[in-house]
Amino acid sequence: CPSPCTCYLQTYPVRANAMDCINIGPEPVPSRLANGTEILKLYHNNISHVPADWFRGRAYTRLQMLYLSYNSIRTVDPAAFRALRLLQALYIDYNDISELPQGAFTDLHSPQLDISYNNIAEITAGAFQGLWSLEVLKLDNNRLERIEAQAFAGLSNMRYLHLAHNMLTTLEPQTGLRLTHLYLDYNPISRIAAGAFRGLEGLQILYLANMPELANIEDSAFANLHHLRELYLFGN
């Protein structure tokens, strides 16, 4: 195991070979990985930028989970994760990302992407371009005020979208999605208009809870949600 990292067999939540390189600086990314490493944790390394050449090389191609949480990341090169073909989950939560330029994660193959607890205020069209494999997207606990209508265009496999604890006041219709779970609780939304969930006919679980500003839900706001099983409106 490369010093000063720690290598071990992780048994929960998945059984896999893990390598912890936590608070190791000044070189936060090891030059080599232990044989068979499937999980790499890089917490608390004061990383501010993720360049394109960090996760290259044969050893990185076996990674299934990559943790970049609890750093100071502001920017990520779009090609940074291109080589991680087997990646199942990428965690960049608890960082300082404030914007997502077009194609920010173009070459990411992971079904799960966690960008919660950052400083993102807006999501523009094309921000998640090319993430065909994405199933779970966590954007909760940011500073989101606006999400453009085509912000999630192309994410036809996404099922879970977490937008709770943001600053959203309106909902823009999102077409072409097959979401089953949508979390919008703890946002200052005051009105749910008819057609707000147009294009989301597959929704099964919808959270609109703990939004004290919510004063108006128009007739037929949920008319197209034929598969909805659970609707949460408590705390309003």
UniProtKB/TrEMBL annotation:
Family annotation (Pfam families): LRR_8
Keywords: Leucine-rich repeat, Repeat, Signal
Entries under Gene3D superfamilies matching the protein: Ribonuclease Inhibitor (3.80.10.10)
SMART domains with a match to the protein in the record: LRR_TYP
GO CC terms: membrane
Coiled-coil segments: none
Domain of life: Eukaryota
SUPFAM superfamilies registered for this protein in UniProt: L domain-like
Descriptive protein name: LRRNT domain-containing protein
Source species: Branchiostoma floridae (Florida lancelet)
